[in-house]
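Posting this for the archive.
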Amino acid sequence: MRTCLLAILLALAAPLSAHAQSADLVLCDRLAADPSDPDKPADVKGVTELAASDIATAVKFCKQAASSSRRAMFALGRAYAANRQTAEAIAAWRKAADKGSSAAMVELGVAYGTGSGVAKDEAQARKLFERAAQAGNPRGVSNLAALGGPGGAAPADPAQARALLGRAAETNAEAQYQLGLMLSNGNGGERDDVAARAMFEKAAAQNHPGALERMGAFAQEGRGGAKDKDAAKAYYERAAALGDEDAKKALERIRCPYAIKDKQGKLVTTLCF
């Protein structure tokens, strides 16, 4: 009888433990997931910045979920970074990168490229960005292009970066946004506002803040398509609600379109509506 009871308790404990782990990951995702992380499921929104009031909770639940999830390990690094625990953040990102997290590779690359929390090492940064780019991470591609050629002796190949982003843009909002920027600026090939707007529109449909802001600007200026001030304002408002600072400034310019300046050309005041 005692053996039978023990077997029942063990059978019940396993699903309860799995459920608790799943709940930890859900809470970790809710508080600390990165919207641009390719590992993030489509139904997880993510946050561009962790709220100060959420940091301690994020650390707790991401740490609990990290043992079985590289996504949670990467998010744990974000939570540590938000709490200014740089050494702990780098350690978490290193573990996540070892497990194949391309988002963690990018963050480590940024740390090495800037010397933030580790000795500055552009060669190591390049290796990490290359690994992330090969995994299809759009930030890995764009950061690799920005880093320049080996030793800084020659510029990076923007055409190659554009091609890599083109492949990643088939399924990834961040890649669509980054490719849109390259197309709109003429980096790595011909400038193409129509194609850029199409990329921004795809990413904006997935609530990418930067793409929403760019769609606002393109609609306001009539770049790559129809000029529509009402649509521009709506895009800016959606981007601003997601925390995009450029969109907030654009809305302020719409609200206060007239600048009054003195004889020296210095701004005195603005007229708002």
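Strands lie at 258-261, 267-271. The longest helix spans residues 2-32.
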